[in-house]
Design a protein that fits this description.
Number of strands: 8
Strand content: 5-15%
Helix content: 25-40%
Radius of gyration: 20 Å
Largest sheet: 4 strands, mixed
CATH architecture of the largest domain: 2-Layer Sandwich
Number of helices: 6
Structural class: alpha/beta
Order of helices and strands: EEHHEHEHEEEEHH
Shape: elongated
CATH class of the largest domain: Alpha Beta
Distance between the termini: 40 Å
CATH superfamily of the largest domain: Uridine Diphospho-n-acetylenolpyruvylglucosamine Reductase, domain 2
């Protein structure tokens, strides 16, 4: 049996050993390689196993060491993302979503390996709600791209660096800036 210490801030749980070991075996290298082979057939050059591309997709702005995925797939449509996730699920392979690479707490790291789904091609602003000061964006939209889209509306997204971790990880509002600006929710 494995018990989490009560000092961890979590409730005390008892985990049966076979459940824990089963979770680890889902991410065996052969399962990951099987998923990579299937995805290579479907995506060709849009699947990369290059070390530099993998390291870029396993990099975060945190103290956690780089944990690159085994492969990166550059998706262009939601149907492609769906098929990648189905293949990863069927093969028992981890899948990691990658938007613009702005992870602050290791969200894009691949501690068990797997497939990184690069969604940087999903870079559209879908809706702007000026009255609510919020927008609906796809995962590949950058702060600069958002501000470019908003420039004629009198709105802009201001990033306050001291609040960046709370902003991204905990979805807290940015305090009002001297000019009219939006918030991340």
């Amino acid at each position: 049996m494995i018990c989490l210490p009560s000092s961890s801030g979590l409730f005390l749980h008892i985990i049966r050993p076979f459940t824990f070991l089963r979770a680890i075996t889902l991410f065996e290298k052969q399962n990951i390689n099987q998923a990579i082979n299937i995805l290579k057939q479907l995506f060709g050059d849009r699947l990369s196993t290059s070390a530099s591309v993998r390291e870029q997709h396993g990099h975060t702005t945190t103290w956690i060491a780089n944990q690159p995925p085994d492969a990166v797939v550059f998706a262009k449509t939601t149907d492609e993302v769906s098929s990648i996730l189905k293949i990863c699920h069927d093969c028992g392979c981890p899948a990691i979503a990658f938007g613009t690479g702005s992870s602050l707490e290791g969200h894009v790291n691949a501690p068990f390996g797997g497939i990184s789904i690069d969604m940087s091609h999903f870079d559209s602003v879908l809706a702007v709600h000026q009255a609510d000061l919020d927008v609906i964006v796809q995962p590949g939209v950058t702060r600069e791209g958002l501000n470019q889209h908003l420039r004629d509306s009198g709105l802009f997204f201001q990033l306050i660096l001291a609040q960046m971790p709370a902003l991204a990880a905990w979805r807290q509002r940015v305090p009002p800036a001297p000019m009219r600006c939006g918030t991340a929710r």
